[in-house]
Task: inverse folding
């Protein structure tokens, strides 16, 4: 069997229970997938060095070998905080209003991708399969090819691919997309993002996309397809059944004191639609005064990317909005929103999901959204909760039995909460069974196998 070399911006070993944090969907999914392979996971350590040396730090943790490098301050500023998180992230989430186009960001992005290429290249053996992840590293494949790497290489994009009319607002968009064609396989979360990509290839590059996923541009032919990522169902079910989850379940139930719980769990990110969610929930409170005091929204939102200004701004506006809604509706013995800016361990999360009668997951745009799948996996089959899910999350294409909402519409969110609260048990069970079958069968193992099979060719 070939070795697998996974390359992503950050390498994250699974955190021990109790050390919660916004680990991110990518880390959660990949550490599980990598355990089965001989091979390694290469990326940035998260640390800064005065000067880039190319020194690789090897570690073995929980069955996964990781190889990490440190980056310079300027690299982190331009490549990570800059091009990745202030240019590509907003643009790919349809927020051209927030996307910043700055040549120093683009230069830093190229430079760090080259640093990745020159450092990882000596570790690559002829039969290795190379699997590059996410928007931080789009040009890496091209740079490895330029250095003579002939291995099979695949790229998976965890976030949406934007419509062509938005993507063309990016300076040098063509070069970025052409560099993707250095890979042999390009994977997207959903057919929708794939469709936007093929549309760009045909409109802007004059390429041709065949129904079997073959994309031809100039003399180059690559395979592009949708591979929806799943959760590690087995691992998560064990977390749900753990004593830690039982304690967390009891803790939440006890503090709920007979009130119904609506839960949201998201990295603090503008793409997750938290403000719109709070406003939708506020509308519900306004329209249903019979429910005041009888339910609450538990929003867990660990901060992320704190060095980027827009993230500071969203944090401030959520502090303000949750405070305002609480001030407006709270009673001496009840607050409508429990807004928590900290992360929890996975077992805690599993217990909280199970204790919540409703999950309110309303991103404005999301590549997939693993929280929605985790919520489903955590439910009691005899008495499951209701998932309210944004139609703009990739997961909505699979979880069709959720209550799908338009996250921009306060009325839609409010109506869905009302419907979820009144939903008869038989309907809850029927919807949950259909969703759970999908979450269980199309899990992270299925995702990884489908992708690696295509990559192996
Ligand atoms: C990107 C794409 C795509 C969250 N808070 C805590 C915690 N988490 C975990 C969740 C879940 C993961 O982080 C978040 O995954 P999502 O998929 O919801 O979102 P992103 O971080 O934006 O991930 C996304 C994903 O990549 C995978 O391809 O689905 O569309 O944006 O697993 O449980 N985990 C712990 N404590 C927390 O407080 N332990």
Result:
């Amino acid at each position: 069997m070939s070795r697998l070399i996974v390359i992503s911006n950050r390498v994250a070993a699974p955190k021990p229970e109790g050390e919660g944090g916004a680990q991110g969907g990518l880390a959660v999914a990949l550490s599980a997938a990598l355990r089965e392979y001989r091979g390694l996971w290469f990326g940035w350590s998260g640390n800064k060095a005065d000067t880039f040396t190319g020194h690789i730090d090897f570690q073995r943790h929980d069955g996964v070998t990781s190889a990490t490098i440190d980056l310079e301050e300027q690299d982190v500023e331009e490549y990570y905080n800059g091009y990745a998180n202030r240019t590509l992230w907003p643009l790919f989430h349809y927020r051209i209003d927030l996307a910043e186009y700055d040549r120093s960001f683009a230069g830093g992005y190229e430079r760090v991708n080259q640093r990745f290429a020159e450092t990882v290249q000596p570790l690559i053996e002829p039969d290795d399969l190379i699997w590059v992840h996410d928007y931080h590293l789009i040009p890496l494949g091209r740079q490895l090819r330029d250095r003579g790497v002939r291995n099979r290489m695949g790229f998976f994009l965890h976030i949406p691919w934007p419509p062509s009319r938005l993507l063309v607002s990016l300076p040098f968009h063509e070069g970025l997309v052409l560099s993707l064609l250095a890979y042999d396989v390009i994977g997207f979360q959903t057919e929708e993002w794939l469709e936007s990509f093929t549309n760009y290839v045909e409109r802007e590059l004059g390429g041709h996309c065949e129904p079997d996923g073959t994309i031809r541009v100039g003399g180059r032919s690559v395979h592009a397809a949708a591979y929806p990522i799943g959760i590690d169902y087995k691992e998560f079910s064990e977390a749900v059944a753990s004593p830690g989850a039982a304690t967390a379940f009891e803790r939440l139930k006890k503090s709920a004191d007979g009130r119904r719980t609506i839960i949201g769990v998201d990295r603090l990110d503008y793409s997750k639609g938290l403000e719109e969610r709070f406003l939708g929930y506020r509308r519900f409170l306004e329209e249903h005064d019979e429910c005041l005091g009888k339910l609450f929204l538990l929003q867990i939102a660990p901060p992320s990317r704190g060095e980027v200004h827009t993230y500071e701004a969203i944090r401030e506006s959520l502090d303000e909005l949750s405070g305002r809604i609480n001030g407006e509706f709270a009673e001496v013995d009840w607050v409508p929103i429990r807004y928590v800016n900290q992360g929890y361990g996975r077992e805690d999360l599993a217990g909280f999901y199970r204790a919540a009668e409703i999950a309110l997951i309303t991103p404005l745009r999301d590549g997939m959204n693993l929280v929605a799948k985790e919520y489903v996996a955590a439910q009691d089959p005899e008495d499951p909760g209701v998932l309210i899910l944004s139609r703009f999350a990739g997961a909505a294409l699979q979880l069709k039995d959720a209550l799908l909402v338009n996250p921009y519409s306060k009325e839609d969110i409010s109506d869905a909460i009302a419907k979820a609260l009144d939903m008869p048990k038989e309907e809850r069970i029927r919807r949950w069974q259909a969703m759970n079958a999908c979450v269980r069968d199309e899990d992270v193992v299925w995702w990884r196998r489908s992708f690696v099979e295509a990559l192996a060719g």
In short: The domain at 4-230+444-456 is CATH 3.40.50.2000 (Rossmann fold). Residues 20-26, 28-29, 158-159, 229, 265, 267, 300, 302, 343-346, 349, 366-371, 374 surround GDP-alpha-D-glucose (CB under 6 Å). DSSP finds 16 helices and 16 strands in the chain. The CA atoms of residues 386 and 427 lie 10 Å apart.
